[in-house]
Specification:
230 residues, globular, 6-stranded parallel sheet, SIR2/SIRT2 'Small Domain', alpha/beta, binds adenosine-5-diphosphoribose, Rossmann fold
Length: 230
């Protein structure tokens, strides 16, 4: 029976693929007003602006590839039962070979009906005003969890973290809840590794915690070696 490894990832895991993070210098939130491009109110006020913001990010997906951090995580499936819980909306974990990926904040390569949120479809093209859901006939929107919207996958994520034999947190500033609160759901003796070149403070935990202040591609190799030695 393989040990259960849970990886909680954020934008930093995709940084070395050339995908901008949100809160680093030059990050996405530096150039945009979050509430204008990533909230239901913003979509109501200026749907073209919001759709264009996600069209640009979706188009970029076809120009970037998984980096060493993604592939090392995927490769850990040889030895561990790995579940990736990601805040990212890109598909780089999947393209690197990870087979169990739970997206907390949605997926750029999916879209959904504006009237029926369960009507989710694969979608790789642009979405503009007038791009309609093929079944419901209503306007499509990005399948993204915007600020102020519920995170439907969080309950499932909590249950997964509770079962973890080891938790790796990688490339997240741990500023956005409920995702950041997942670290509180590990069993008290579950070791936590936190990989981030500029690590945030992890709230006081009784768990064994090792902070690897490195980029994801290098830090994942360090953690993999440590875990394989155990
Ligand atoms: N390797 C690993 N981590 C990195 C790298 C790298 N090469 N480069 C930057 N980082 C780290 C930064 O130090 C930072 O801690 O990645 C983290 C990125 O933090 P954020 O930009 O805040 O991204 P994230 O934590 O994923 O944001 C969470 O906020 O805006 C919302 O929905 C959005 O899912 C996102 C959520």
């Amino acid at each position: 029976m393989k040990k259960k490894l849970v990886v909680l990832s954020g934008a930093g895991v995709s940084a070395e693929s050339g995908v901008a993070t949100f809160r680093d210098a030059g990050g996405l939130w530096e150039g945009h007003n979050v509430m204008e491009v990533a909230s239901p109110e913003g979509f109501r006020k200026n749907p073209e602006l919001v759709l264009d913001f996600y069209n640009k990010r979706r188009r970029q997906l076809f120009e970037v590839s998984p980096n060493k951090a993604h592939t090392t995580i995927a490769g850990m499936e040889d030895t561990f039962d790995v579940t990736v819980i990601t805040q990212n909306v890109d598909d780089l974990h999947e393209r690197a070979g990870s087979t169990k990926v739970l997206h907390l904040h949605g997926e750029l390569v999916k879209a959904r009906c504006t009237q029926c949120e369960t009507a989710v479809i694969d979608w790789k093209g642009d979405i503009t005003i007038g791009t309609l859901h093929p079944k419901t006939g209503k306007q499509l929107r990005p399948h993204i969890v915007w600020f102020g919207e519920a995170v439907p996958a969080i309950t499932q994520a909590m249950e997964i973290v509770k079962q973890a034999d080891c938790l790796i947190v990688i490339g997240t500033s741990l500023q956005v809840y409920p995702a950041a609160g997942l670290v509180d759901y590990v069993k008290p003796d579950t070791p936590i590794y936190y990989i981030d070149p500029n690590p945030a403070q992890i709230p006081k935990l009784c768990n064994p915690l090792e902070v690897i202040a490195m980029k994801g591609s290098v830090g994942m190799e360090v953690v993999k070696k440590k875990m394989l030695l155990k």
